Amino acid sequence: MTDIASSMLAPEHPVEAIWDAAPLLLTPDLTCPEATDRFASRSGAFHTSACVVDGDGRLLGIVSLRDCLNGSGPIEAVMTTKVPSARRGEAGAERTAYDMIDRGIDIMPVLERDGRVAGVVHAEKANAFLVEELHEDADRWVGIAGGVKDDYFDHTVWSDFRRRVPWVLALAVAGLAAGYVVHIYEDALDALVILALYMPMVADTGGNVGTQSASLVTRALTTGDVKARETLWILWRETRVSLLMAGTLFLFAFLKVLLISNAADVPATMTLEGIGFAIAIALAAQVISATLIGAVLPLVAVAVRQDPAVVSGPALTTIVDLTGLLLYFTITASMLGLAVP
């Protein structure tokens, strides 16, 4: 690599930039039902895999929520012992994220030198990090990063705080609605536990496609490739792209449910094919919705004379999470005949 190319690339981030420093850790003597309760009672983001550690916190293996739901004995009987891991202080965030994609894994333990679990990297965090890094690298190569004047240093700390905090507070309140959606559909989750297993997939996919759409539209606005007045043309283009992605991910989701899920978990009144079809329809709807939301938010920000970087990023996360959960539960509950609030 040339000196010029090297100077344009961002420095490697430490793995701590994308890890969960307080992951769910389970001991091998826990039974599968007890481990399932630990997964359910875990606050914050919902994940479907956890590390199994000994009394000193050293890694023994990985266990998934699906394995726990299918078992009844100790989790050491169903956990996977041969798992890849990253070493703290040696592995960078980008290398770890690419390694997870190459291996197709959902969780990467990060270990201290003595084998103790220091944290874990989840797939959704790794994917979001790589998308952001690729956008930043592309901006450097085309000269955007250094060529567009920003008013960042024109703001005092107080004025910068005042332009950010209203959006953050408003979206924090709006974020409570996402938890309420899960609460009102508790009966549906109790009746069909398999729905909980695919909630992260729907939420993460919505976040990824929404971020892609928002980033591309923001960059196009910044470079002058498109104007805010071309909103209808942008939405028509994004609609066609989202339909193609929705079709692809529909097939992926349907096959994943059909080939990976355990038919023994399906109630007698339903079929695995029917459940897979409902989840795939919900995922396709989320892809279309998130893509259009991601495209609209930068345009709305520009229309109301706000900075798209300040508005669209936080708003996208909250809105896509909320709409994604609503679409997921509404579609699956209606198609599968579950209780609808």
From TrEMBL:
Membrane-spanning parts: 165-185, 191-209, 241-263, 275-304, 316-340
Presence of keyword Transmembrane: yes
Membrane topology, from the record: Multi-pass membrane protein
Cellular component aspect of the GO annotation: membrane
Coiled-coil portions: none
InterPro entries recorded: CBS_dom, CBS_dom_sf, SLC41_membr_dom, SLC41_membr_dom_sf
Annotated compartments: Membrane
Pfam family, one: MgtE
Keywords linked to the UniProt accession: CBS domain, Magnesium, Membrane, Transmembrane, Transmembrane helix, Transport
Protein family: Belongs to the SLC41A transporter family.
Protein name per UniProt: Magnesium transporter MgtE
Organism: Martelella mediterranea DSM 17316
Organism phylogeny: Bacteria, Pseudomonadati, Pseudomonadota, Alphaproteobacteria, Hyphomicrobiales
